[in-house]
Amino acid sequence: MSRPVVVIVGAGPGVSGSVARKFADEGYDVALMGQDQGVLDDLAADVEGRGAACGHTVVDVTDEPAARAAVRRFGEHAGRIDVLHFNPSAFREKDPLQLSVDELLEDVRLGVGALLTVVQAARPFMSAGGRVSVTGSMAADEPWEGAASLGVQKAGVRNLVHSLDKTLSPDGIRAVSVTVRGALAKDGAFTPDGVAEALWAAVATDEGDWRSEVPYAG
């Protein structure tokens, strides 16, 4: 039997990198979608050093045809997608009086809309027991007005996860948003590795205890 496969959308050196390493350590092969080839190369080497196979591709996930094609290639190559992890969001330092409608929609297209794209592309390769996970944020409930679009993205993506979970659950596939209730830091409770552990715990939750939102307070 082939190893389980996690596809990480928005792969980079922070939380998503920690997620990649955590899943590799748990016996998963890893597929990475990101925007920086050098970052992906370094992360892939780290993952492969842990004994996992790792494919990676540079893609703009707001380019719907390109993002769908990338997910489909990973699914066809592995024959399965067991976990789809979604990490992207846009940080634009503008308050509501500075932020234009076009800028808001551009950010929502990345932080919310791209989740639809990748889930729809991954669904044919997912079966009962499959999971969709999203890096959430307390900005959904306590937005900083200085980056107004981020709170809208995080509230929107959490809402979408609830809908995805209800839609996918009859087929045994579940979705979860892990709401990080603190600021990421190199030390302390909110390190990327700590958040990755929380995401792993959420994905590994038994069906009977499943919740589509899990808070992580460190």
From TrEMBL:
InterPro entries associated with the record: NAD(P)-bd_dom_sf, SDR_fam
CDD domains reported in the protein's UniProt record: SDR_c
Gene3D superfamilies: NAD(P)-binding Rossmann-like Domain
Protein name per UniProt: SDR family oxidoreductase
